[in-house]
Amino acid sequence: MMNFYLNYLKKLPHVVYLFAGILALFAILAPNFLSMTNLTNLVLQGSVLLIISLGMTLVMLSNGIDLSVGALMSLTGMIAGFFLSREFGLIPALLTSILIGLLSGYLIGFLVARLDFPPFIATFGMMGIFEGMSLFMNKGESIYWKESVFNFIGNGYLLQIPFPIWLAALVFFIVYMLLYKTPFGVNVFAVGGHEEGLRLSGVNVKRQKILIYMVSGLLASVGGLLLASRIASGHPTVGIGHEFEAIASSVIGGTSFMGGQGGIIGTVFGALLITLLRNGLNLLGFTTPYQYCAIGLILAVGITLNTLYKR
Amino acid sequence: MGQSKLLSRLILLVFLGLLLSLLSPNFLKWNNFVNIFRQAAILNILGIGMTLVILTGGIDLSNGAVLALSSCVSAIYLKDGGPMVIGIAIALAIGLACGMINGWMIARILIPPFVITYAMMFFARGLAYIVLQGNIIYGFSKPFRFFGAGQLFTIPTPILLSVVILALVYFFLRYTPFGADLYALGSDEESSRLSGIKVRNRIMLAYALSGVLSSFAGIIYMSRLNAAEPVIGEFFPLDAIAAVVIGGTSLAGGEGGVIGTMIGALIITVIINGMNLLGIPSLLQPFALGGIILIMVASQYLGGELKGLPSFLKPRTIKKG
Fold first, then answer.
1. What is the pTM of this model?
2. A296 part of contact set with chain B, CB < 8 Å
3. Does A12 fall in a domain?
4. How many domains does chain A have?
5. Does A80 map to a domain?
6. Is residue A64 a contact partner of residue A209, using CB atoms and an 8 Å limit?
7. Is B69 a residue whose pLDDT tops 90?
8. Is A295 in CB contact (< 8 Å) with chain B?
């Protein structure tokens, strides 16, 4: 029995231990850290990064990259703002944004899978297009809206737990089931690891790739909506840099650009670790520059652990 | 690098110059010309460092942050009345240290260049803010201003300095074993290791040089601005990568050179200068740069130089020995 648990612990990504260690450190150093309010706050702050990182992990597992995530987040926020500020109602705003996410994912997948565009180029180009569109939508200005049900998504509570946490948990659950309990998930790993073998075994690899980018696009638009709702406005450049943070979360979590290696449990802790550093250092009175330094350091330490352990 | 490739870039540069002199009467003014060359000088120095690491199949996202950190620390020292030579040495030492850490992590621990230099970017940027405590340091001594704002034989110093560095690195790449090794390991790491090249050593050297050149550019930059602040150079990695790929250096490594990068730096500066003269909003300028990078990198994919994900996203596969 003991062995069973030990084996289970050994299988956990290293980032879990790093996370636990730093959590313990903050618990000792910062008196209010372990309060329910702060822990809830921590997950709340991490929810956006967590959601988009899950999509990035899927793409990286399939030997791809999605640089358009941040710009797509900006765009969905602007689109939601476009509908909300004109009081078209909540449903059109949500539906259009989600649809745009799926559509752009399809487009990227189409470019990559059918037209053989390198993912780096296709998504870099789409990043420019999305960012341009979101700047174009209100001539570079933010869009604000009157108090709306929409703001509930980012700021509301359900059973005394902030709604973004429910949303992140739901997204995690769905992606987890998708990745580990369905043929789709098996194929995600296989596309990254042995694309040719998968093709020979009769799987439609192109369709699989398109679906993966669609999941990434969908999650980016959900993340963008959540972010817009939290700040109660659409801002044309709010998403910039999120794609790199999502890559960082995945990489700390043990997913690499080699394809087929890694998983989403590590990504969750990677995203939470980055948020944890910000939150904990903030509580201890350290300003943003110190948080920058700490993120740089922990990123280096995390990936060093991953690399050394593998060998 | 093929002569024809260089020639095509040169023709592009001349063409852009002619186009802009038709579109804007201010372009052909002597002051504007000197301005362009002076602006291109800093980008050129950063681009040379970036060329070295890209030749190995890597990348350096930290050059802007290293520039900020080294110039901020040395500014504090200079402002306290420290000797200029030591102030400059401090900046260069910081650049060297950051570059060596990058190189060591990439060549020894086998961390993907993209990831570790991204981490270094955060670390160095944060540290730059911390050492200055939110202040801006301005007003340097007259001798120090010489590097960025001075003139020698009526030519601005930054231009002369960048040409000297270009000549040195060109010589290194062309006529020393270091250069040959760099090209060899960039195109085929395994066989260059088997032929006795100290692959790790060379990779570390390339990143160390990129760090030193970043801090050197930082000295010129703060001397020209007459100020040091932690925010400077946020977009320098993008600019430098653009200069390198426009100059014809392959993102796959092993092909290209610094002369192309110099022309690339000039092309970018001319484009930015032209957009300013034509009154194109600065908000739109990153799109032009991004579009150029996109076209250049796409053409590398089309030409078959690059396949799949760029190698800087992946760990190096150096075996023992």
1. 0.87
2. yes
3. no
4. 1
5. yes
6. yes
7. yes
8. yes
